């Protein structure tokens, strides 16, 4: 009897250990904007009528011999800590800057244009939790050569910086990828801690997105139209209260024709483990408004993973 009891306790403890392990976020590693600028891997991108220079990741991976090796080494360090690494290089091969430049939608109500940058498209397609940008520079010293580096981790949904690490390697004759691998290993604990704390907050409080509700000018209603004695804006807020994690969101601005919701906290997953993003969440709201008593047709417009616009009145 004692033997069976002891065996049962061991099984329970093993189960607790497995389920108690903290899930690590998925990551994607890219060269930093500064690194791309220094090496002239930039392209001009038209953002709502303004020319903006953005990194040309495809060119960087194709032409720089160190980049793939460096990302592989740094990625190896992070995967050894339990992170799930998504291969940016393979995904970038299927992307085209023209795809982003042509992805323009004109609003019927204001004429505003919404467009995604190449990075926005990449993040949306790969759906990583964190984008890590790496910068490095070679230093020549009397004892050999060293490398200065900076690692910065950003929330893929909000672009907020969540972790950073920087340093300079010791002088050595090693190749740059090996130098950086050693340096990252020496500085990875605080970086890992910052990312883990951020992800723990996401799991507890939901990931953050922004949601805008607008109206087509052809629609004969607006956000002040009443349904069951409540204005439509209030009805939408009631839905958000029920569907946001801990009911967390903030109505930062609004009129009869638009409502801007920020710090909208949505679940990490839905529908059997699929990652929730701004588009999926806005689509759920669209489906809700299609039903009685609202019967509102609407269109979801997205920009990256963390921003969605729901335009009411037609598709």
Question: How would you describe this protein?
Answer:
The longest helix is centred in the middle third of the chain and has 30 residues, at 176-205. The chain is elongated. The chain is built from 10 helices and 18 strands. Helix 4 (67-79) packs across helix 8. It has helices at 2-19, 33-38, 57-63, 67-79, 88-92, 97-102, 118-126, 176-205, 232-243, 278-290; strands at 26-31, 42-47, 50-55, 84-86, 104-106, 113-115, 130-141, 144-155, 161-168, 207-215, 226-227, 230-231, 250-254, 258-266, 269-270, 274-275, 298-302, 307-312. Helices cover 38% and strands 32% of the residues. With 315 residues, it is an alpha+beta fold. It starts with a helix and ends with a strand. The strands form 6 sheets. It has a 5-stranded mixed beta sheet with strand order 4-1-7-8-9. It has a 5-stranded mixed beta sheet with strand order 13-14-10-18-17. It has a two-stranded antiparallel ribbon with strand order 2-3.
């Amino acid at each position: 009897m004692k033997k069976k009891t002891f065996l049962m306790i061991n099984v329970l403890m093993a189960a607790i250990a497995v389920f108690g392990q903290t899930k690590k976020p998925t990551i994607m590693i890219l060269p930093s904007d500064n690194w791309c600028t220094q090496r002239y891997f930039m392209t001009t991108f038209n953002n709502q009528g303004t020319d903006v220079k953005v990194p040309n990741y495809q060119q960087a991976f194709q032409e720089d011999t160190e980049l793939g090796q460096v990302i592989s080494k740094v990625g190896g360090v992070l995967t050894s800590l339990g992170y799930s690494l998504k291969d940016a290089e393979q995904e970038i091969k299927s992307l085209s800057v023209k795809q982003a430049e042509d992805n323009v939608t004109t609003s019927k109500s204001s004429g505003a244009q919404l467009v995604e940058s190449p990075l926005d498209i990449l993040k949306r397609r790969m759906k990583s939790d964190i984008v890590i940008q790496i910068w490095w520079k070679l230093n020549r010293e009397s004892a050999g050569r060293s490398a200065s580096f900076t690692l910065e981790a950003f929330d893929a949904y909000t672009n907020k910086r969540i972790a950073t690490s920087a340093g300079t390697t010791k002088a050595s004759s090693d190749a740059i990828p090996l130098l950086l691998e050693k340096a990252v290993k020496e500085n990875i604990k605080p970086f890992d801690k910052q990312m883990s704390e951020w992800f723990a907050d996401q799991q507890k409080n939901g990931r953050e997105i922004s949601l805008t509700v607008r109206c087509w000018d052809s629609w004969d209603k607006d956000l002040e139209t009443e349904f069951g004695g409540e204005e439509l804006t209030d009805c939408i807020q009631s839905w958000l209260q029920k569907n946001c994690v801990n009911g967390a969101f903030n109505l930062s601005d609004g009129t009869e024709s638009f409502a801007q919701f920020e710090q909208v906290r949505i679940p990490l997953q839905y529908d059997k483990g699929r990652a929730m993003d701004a588009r999926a969440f806005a689509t759920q709201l669209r489906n809700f408004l299609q039903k009685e008593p609202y019967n509102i047709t609407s269109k979801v417009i997205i920009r990256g993973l963390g921003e969605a616009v729901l335009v009411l009145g037609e598709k």
